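Reopening this ticket.

The earlier resolution said the output was attached, but the attachment link was broken on my side. Pasting everything inline this time so it's all in one place.
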Amino acid sequence: MNPNPSGCSCHPPRDSIVVLGIGNVLWADEGFGVRCVEALQQRVEFDGGADDAPEVQLIDGGTQGLYLVQHVQAADCLLIFDAIDYGLEPGTLKCIANDDVPRFMGAKKMSLHQTGFQEVLMLAQLTGQYPREVLLIGCQPEELEDYGGSLRPSVRRAMDEALALGLDTLRRWGARPVPRTTPLTERECITFAELELTRYEGERPPEELACRSGDARFFPSAQVEG
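Inline output:
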């Protein structure tokens, strides 16, 4: 007797892996998470040809907060890159896994995006749609109060190690990263072309000519001479 009378070849659904970079690239080391996912996309692609290979989605989460909940809910495995205040030396990496991730992200928040993402994780838990595995790769920032600035050298140097840790994790989860052979088109890039790291650093004005902390005309202490 034919167990599949329709003749179709059915396979169980493939796992979904979401790689999420969160933070704000306009505030120096706050952009660590997004820069990691950007670099990962530039360096590797994922072989999804085999039926059992998980689908891997790379996302520039920016500071979207609750808008990210759909991606968390859809993930079987979730890998997060972010700048985290661990109270350690700048550029130090630390990994947090599974149940500790939402608790830790709210314990020593640096900015509103971390509070928002903690709520995203808790909402996914409440709905019963939560990844079975979660790993946060966090980097201790050196400088945050530098609007229009870029990653500090200590944090930039940590990126290669962070990506190596991330790739090891993705392989453990069944993903098959291979070196990228075809350059990304502008449309494929997960970050806006204007904000791509090399272009962002190459086109920004020197620090002495740029306002890196806000417009002094709107500071409460600014005095207008009449």
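Reporter confirms the inline version is readable. The chain has one domain: 16-209. Residues 217 and 223 are 8 Å apart (CA to CA).
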